[in-house]
Amino acid sequence: MDDGRVAVVVEHDDGMRTVLGAILRRTGFEVHYADAGIYGVALAAEVEPDLVTLAMDLPDIDGFEAIRRIRRLSDAHLVAISAWTEEADVVYGLQAGADDYMTKPLRRREFRARVDALLRRSERIRAPARSPARHGLDPAVPGGSWRQEMRRLGAIVVPGEGSRSHHQATLRPHRLVLNDLVVEPATYTALLGEAELPLTPTEFALVHAILRCGRMVRTKRALVRELRDGDAESGTFVSTADERSIEVHVANLRRKLGDDAMDPRWIETVRGVGYRAARPR
After folding, report:
1. What pLDDT is recorded for position 75?
2. Other beta carbons within 10 Å of 272
3. Helix count (H) and strand count (E) of the chain?
4. Separation in Å, CA 215 to CA 80, 198, 210, 253, 261
5. How far is CA 93 from the centre of its chain?
6. CA–CA distance, 222 with 238 (Å, rounded to integer)
7. Among residues 70, 35, 69, 65, which one has the least CA distance to residue 52?
8. Residues of the chain with pLDDT under 50
């Protein structure tokens, strides 16, 4: 992990705060601590962290409210940590703006792996996009390396969706463009018309992953693996809760885009399978 990373740990339990800080310091973070929600929000504004871990059972303000306040002023990766294990709690945390939600007792190696995955993902997206022509990813070549690349991403070919016109716009190098939405990996920004969208890191990674495959379908399982592992074909276990988290993040994306699931301009649901980019208009 690169030097210069900054983390904020918002945790009222002394033991848990020590554990989280030790793990993050070993992975190269400069760590700042807060033992209450209001202090955590203020600290996130002051130090501009790359990562925030947030206990949900804070002594002052509700954990969901703390997430919302931090999200208003920071695009840091935000991991909620809680003893609450009900699906509704996980969904509320993700809807409030968390990128990930982990339950106690905390599994230390899993925590470190998830943090590593979040940061790898942002670095991978910011890397210069590959040129389709240079790498043989030509949508006009049936069965060529372009289709191999789509398979690597876990994308599914839908009959009637294999022509060049269905994919060309989203396979341009450096940026993805669809119906007034511009996704810029180099600057980690998404513009709708002239307005920059306030996307979380996970929402940005998700819209990037869906749009770059055009009309090819991304399964929820493949999206979980790509966002978590960096490889849609990693073969790692994907739980029902993991797939549900993708649904929540897509719902948040649609709300910010003002997209209608019944008449989508950007993200189309393929019922029972996953998601794909809507048709250009």
Report:
1. 85
2. 6
3. 9, 13
4. 33, 25, 9, 18, 16
5. 14
6. 9
7. 70
8. 1-2, 128-150, 155-160, 162-173
Is the distance from CB of 90 to CB of 98 less than 8 angstroms? no
- The pLDDT of residue 201 is 86
Q: Judging by beta carbons within 10 Å of its beta carbon (0-12, 13-18, 19+), is residue 72 exposed, middle or buried?
A: exposed
Classify residue 15 by burial, with Cβ atoms within 10 Å: 0-12, 13-18, 19+: exposed
If we measure between CA atoms, which residue out of 89, 83, 90, 85 comes closest to residue 105? 83
Contact 206, 227 (CB under 8 A): yes
Against a cut of 0.90, is the pTM above it?
A: no
Positive or negative torsion for Cα 179, 95, 222, 202: positive
> Which domains does the chain show, CATH number per domain?
5-126 (3.40.50.2300), 145-277 (1.10.10.10)
H/E element, 149:
helix 145-152
For 187-206, the pLDDT digits (tens) are: 888 999 889 998 988 899 89
Residue 21 CB neighbours (<10 A): 18
CA distance 273 to 222: 10
**Cis-peptide, bond into residue 105, ω within 30° of zero:** yes
Closest CA to 212 of 152, 140, 144: 152
Q: Which two tokens stand for residue 253?
A: 């994306």
Q: How many angstroms separate the CA atoms of 203 and 162, rounded?
A: 27
Predicted local confidence at residue 258, as pLDDT:
94
